[in-house]
Design goal:
Blueprint: E1 2-9, H1 13-25, E2 31-35, H2 44-47, E3 51-52, H3 63-81, E4 86-87, E5 91-94, H4 101-113, E6 119-122, H5 123-129, E7 138-142, E8 146-148, H6 150-163, E9 167-170, E10 174-177, E11 181-184, E12 187-196, H7 202-208, E13 215-222, E14 225-227, E15 237-240, E16 252-255, E17 261-264, E18 268-269, H8 284-299, H9 305-313, H10 318-326, E19 337-340, E20 344-351, E21 356-357, E22 362-365, E23 369-374, H11 379-398
Parallel strand pairs: 1-2, 1-12, 2-9, 5-15, 12-23
Antiparallel strand pairs: 3-8, 4-8, 5-7, 6-7, 10-11, 11-12, 13-18, 13-20, 14-17, 14-19, 16-17, 20-21, 22-23
Helix pairs in contact: 1-6, 1-11, 3-11
Length: 399
């Protein structure tokens, strides 16, 4: 039997930082983090693009807007202090045609309302930043957007958590709630407070505690294509104007820490929660559950799921992915994009009553447990202030 005052479930970047913050806030408490894999960050946290977003996409009243600017600053400082490489390459948001210009204006307005440094520039000015960029009349430039290696960041934070007194128990899976704690694959953990940061399974665990009644996780697969072009072939991240009705940003160029480029991601509906490969981690119960939910959304949803699904499935084609990217930059050729990167799965929260995707971070909890139900992009960027917010919410429920 193992006892802890706080037990964090899930060793992604939000789980690790939540454990660290709990240890700071309740210094005399025993904090344990359990992670079902043999190491931390093997799912979304270690499989994302490593972009540190600036924060001009999000409506000013959202948690994402509140935490992205500060998260960018704090994570940038963290990398500099810990000598983790960071590529301060910035980001261009380009317009495909005149229909994009009103949405470009909306992004600029959101950026200014959120206190974000974002510049409205002409087509010629965009070319000076990135000669290969293609835009219609004007663009936006975000100088504070950068990229890091997410695996190195997560590993550094894991070591910090251990040094600060958090116990990390790897290879330990949550099985079910018990009267005084939880049953795991390594036995019973007795705990005073549960913090559920389990990503793709956050809704399942929350249901055991009486939460997530109106929510379910809907998994979307993210794939990137790696370029064979030399480092520096493109200088800055290049993004299209996104469809602000859904939380996906569209196929774009990411300049990695090493200067190499990749295009993506997709947002292809997955058929089970950890469907990284064709039949990897296959679970028949999840297949039926998610197929049933997706079939229902094909008939009735508030975010055009049918259109989204068919558009995203087309992105399994390299030629189609490259074609989409070619609208953003000159000289993009299919023969330079042959290698698929390591896939990731987005644990996107679905409101099953309203039949809509949740755009913002979502928490539910009480004086016994807290459940981080929606921690999708830009949760990596927001991880430090978002985790501080989670712990303040916990503290308010314990008082």
């Amino acid at each position: 039997m193992i006892y802890s005052d706080f037990l964090v479930i899930g060793g992604g970047i939000v789980g690790i930082n939540t454990a660290r913050e709990l240890k700071k806030m309740f210094s005399d408490s025993k904090v344990i983090l359990i992670e079902k894999e043999n190491d931390c960050g093997l799912h979304a946290s270690g499989r994302n693009s490593g972009v540190l977003h600036a924060g001009f996409y999000y409506s000013p009243d959202s948690l994402k807007a509140k935490f992205t600017r500060l998260g960018n600053k704090l994570l940038t400082e963290y990398c500099e202090i810990n000598k983790i490489a960071i590529n301060k390459c910035g980001k261009l948001v380009v317009a495909k045609d005149s229909s994009d210009l009103m949405y470009l204006d909306e992004l600029l307005k959101r950026g200014r309302n959120n206190g974000i440094q974002v510049e409205e520039i002409t087509e010629d000015e965009a070319k000076k930043i990135e000669p290969r960029a293609k835009t219609h009349r004007r663009a936006l430039f975000s100088p504070t957007t950068s990229t890091v290696d997410p695996v190195k960041v997560v590993q550094a934070m894991k070591l910090d958590a251990i040094d600060e007194g958090t116990e990390i128990h790897s290879g330990v899976s949550f099985m079910k709630k018990t009267a005084k704690g939880i049953l795991t694959s390594a036995g019973v953990y007795h705990t005073g407070y549960i913090v559920n940061c389990s990503g793709l399974y956050a809704d399942r665990i929350a249901l055991e505690y009486g939460f997530s009644e109106r929510y379910r996780i809907l998994p979307f697969k993210g794939l990137y294509l790696y370029s064979d072009e030399p480092a520096g072939a493109i200088r800055t991240n290049i993004y299209p104007v996104p469809d602000l009705r859904n939380p996906f940003l569209g196929v774009h160029f990411t300049v990695r820490v090493d200067g190499k480029i990749e295009i993506g991601p997709t947002a292809i509906p997955a058929f089970w929660r950890e469907q990284y490969g064709m039949f990897e981690n296959f679970k028949i119960a999840e297949l039926f559950e998610i197929l049933r939910r997706e079939m229902g959304l094909l008939v009735n949803s508030n975010f055009e799921f049918t259109r989204l699904a068919f558009e995203e499935i087309r992105k399994y084609s390299r030629q189609h992915m490259v074609s989409l990217a070619s609208h953003l930059a000159e000289g993009i050729k299919t023969e330079n994009y042959r290698k698929w990167g390591k896939p990731g799965i987005r644990a996107q929260l679905l409101d099953i009553k309203e039949k809509k995707l949740e755009m913002d971070f979502v928490l539910e909890g009480d004086d016994k447990s807290m459940h981080v139900l929606n921690a999708v992009s830009p949760a990596f960027t927001c991880s430090i202030p978002f985790s501080q917010y989670i712990c303040k919410e916990i503290q308010s429920r314990l008082n």
